[in-house]
Each structure stands twice: as C-alpha cells, then as structure tokens.
UniProtKB/TrEMBL annotation:
Xref: Gene3D superfamilies: 1, 4-beta cellobiohydrolase
Protein name (database record): Glucanase
Sorted UniProt keywords: Carbohydrate metabolism, Cellulose degradation, Disulfide bond, Glycosidase, Hydrolase, Polysaccharide degradation, Signal
Taxonomic source organism: Actinoplanes italicus
Keyword Chloroplast: no
C-alpha cells in the first residue's frame, strides 16, 4: 500500500479505458497504482482441489488454466466473522503487493427469483452491519469489490417495499466503502445483456447509489460474449447521463469463452474466457465467478449445490466441451 505509482500499469490503463469514463469523476483513490498486478488466491477452490488430488489426470490442467489465474473470492454468511475473513484475504494480497478481487453476496432475499442461491442476511439491519464490517476490514488497503450479483436484475418477484429496501441497502453499502475503504473500487452489479434493457438498468443503478460507486459490473456468473457485454455496458453508461454522470464498467469473463447458449445454470459446452486484465472492451475484464463452481442443482451440475467445486465441469470448461 502507498507504494510508488507503477508507470507501466497507468500507461496501459490510459490506453484501454473506454470512452464511457469521460466525465466520470473518480470516487476513490486508484488501487491499480498501489499494487503490482492482480492477486492469485492460493486457497481458491480449484487450487485446493488440485493440491489435494495430485494424481488425478485433470489436476495439472485445472491448476495451470484456472487455479493460477487471478479470480474473485466471494463472501457471504458462510464466511463467518466477516471482518476477520475479509481482513485476512485482503491482508494476504497486500503482503505480496497484489490487488484482491472480492464479491459481496449477502443481501436479504438473495436470488429471490432464480432460487438456486437463496439466503443472505436475516434483515436489513443485519445486512447494514455486515457490509459495514466488510468495508472496515478492507480499510486503507487497495481492493476491488463487486456488490451483490443479481441484485438489480432480480425485481420481477419482489414487491415495491422489498425493492425499496434493496436499493437502500446497496446505496448505504456504497457509502460504507467511500468512507471506510477509500482505496477500494466498488462496482454495483448490473446484470447482463440478456436480462434488463439499458435504460431500466441505468435507472436502477442510479436508485442504488451508482453515483458514489466506481462503476458497475456485468455478466457475473453468466456466459454472454465480451463484445455483447461491452455494447450493453456502453448503452447503460450512456443512459446514466440522464442523471448527470456516467460510469465505467467491468465484465466477468470467467466462463464466456464460448458465449451463451441461452441457459444460465450450469449449461454444457461453455469455456473459460479471457483471464483477468485491464481493458479489453471495459475498464477491466475479471474472473468473478470461479470456473468449475456450480450455479446450483441444474444442468451439468445436477446434484450439486451453488458454489460447490466440480472438477469435471472445470476440466471441460478448459477445453470447451
């Protein structure tokens, strides 16, 4: 932290930041300039599986093609003491001068319409406390955080009171990161190109406090091609100008190498996409969903639970079959 600016990273970023950044005020200090690349978690689920199964014929490919790539770590009720869990993860990244990627996934009524990843905090007050501890645990260390996948696309089975609660929680969460984690870039999840039209998503982002966030995230845990997401992201960013500002966006490319076949829950024939990097049609392309971790009891992951690592699915994603 607080290290000399990496000229190489800043020069690269200047070349690849899309036009949607013009006129978008920076909400926080730049975590890219404080680190020397993205953090690779040695305890990710594919890394842990590969280490525990060295004799498995799939282990080498999973280790090289997935486990050794920078990916996000997800935090929710399973994380236990959230302050301790986040603090240890960010601290480990900071110790090696790398930028950690984190996903917060604990809203009450999470995945209300999809149903495969239900759960979350028990109340609005419980979530507010949880996310406050999350932000405080990062503190002044650099980080990238994506807030609450599916949260702004998932309105169809919610009443207006529930929607109001949700956007209120997200808006307060953004404020927590602004005040307690000044070197964090926080992105609100904005669904994917096949879910909500750009104008509607921009309106929802604005209600959820996007003006105070670094930007928004697309395609989390989905399969749409990078180009489709880039086009959609630019449309959303343009629609945000109706509210007096615009924002950059990041794209989850962890599983979009073969694009989408119209299914979202463990579809067959998908492939890993472009590894985490700056630019590429967005502010950053990020592996936010871990390849091989199940979407739920469905598709090629039948019989599994959401988040469970499936080595055969991971192996097939490397080769796209």
């Amino acid at each position: 932290m607080k290290r000399p600016i990496r000229t190489r990273i800043l020069a690269t970023l200047a070349l690849v930041i899309p036009a949607v950044l013009l006129g978008a005020p920076a909400a926080h200090a730049d975590p890219l300039s404080q680190t020397s690349g993205f953090y690779v978690n040695p305890s990710s689920s594919p890394a842990t599986w590969a280490a525990a199964n060295p004799g498995d014929g799939r282990a080498a490919a999973i280790r090289t093609s997935i486990a050794q790539k920078p990916m996000a770590s997800w935090f929710g009720s399973w994380s236990g003491d959230i302050g301790g869990a986040v603090g240890r993860y960010v601290g480990a990244a900071d110790a090696v001068d790398k930028l950690p990627l984190l996903v917060a996934y604990n809203l009450p009524g999470r995945d209300a319409c999809g149903g495969h990843s239900g759960g979350g905090a028990g109340s609005v007050a419980a979530y507010d406390s949880w996310i406050s501890s999350f932000a405080a645990a990062i503190g002044n260390r650099p980080a990238v955080v994506v807030l609450e996948p599916d949260s702004l696309g998932d309105f169809n089975c919610m009443n207006q009171g529930q929607i109001n609660d949700r956007v209120g929680m997200l808006s307060r969460a953004i404020n927590q990161f602004r005040t307690k984690a000044p070197n964090t870039w926080a992105y609100l999840d904005a669904g994917n190109p096949g879910w909500v039209d750009a104008a509607t998503m921009a309106q929802r982002l604005n209600l959820a406090g996007a003006a105070g966030a670094r930007g928004f995230a697309l395609n989390v845990s989905n399969y749409f091609p990078t180009g489709d997401n880039s086009n959609y992201g630019n449309r959303v960013a343009g629609e945000l100008r109706r509210f007096g500002y615009s924002k950059p966006f990041v794209i989850d490319t962890s599983r979009n190498g073969n694009g989408s076949n119209g299914q979202w829950c463990n579809p067959a024939g998908r492939r890993i996409g472009t590894p985490t990097q700056l630019g590429g049609g967005a502010e950053m392309l990020l592996w936010l969903k871990t390849p091989g971790e199940s979407d739920g009891n469905c598709g090629v992951g039948a019989g599994s639970s959401a988040g469970q690592f499936l080595p055969e699915v991971a192996y097939r994603m490397i080769f796209g079959y």
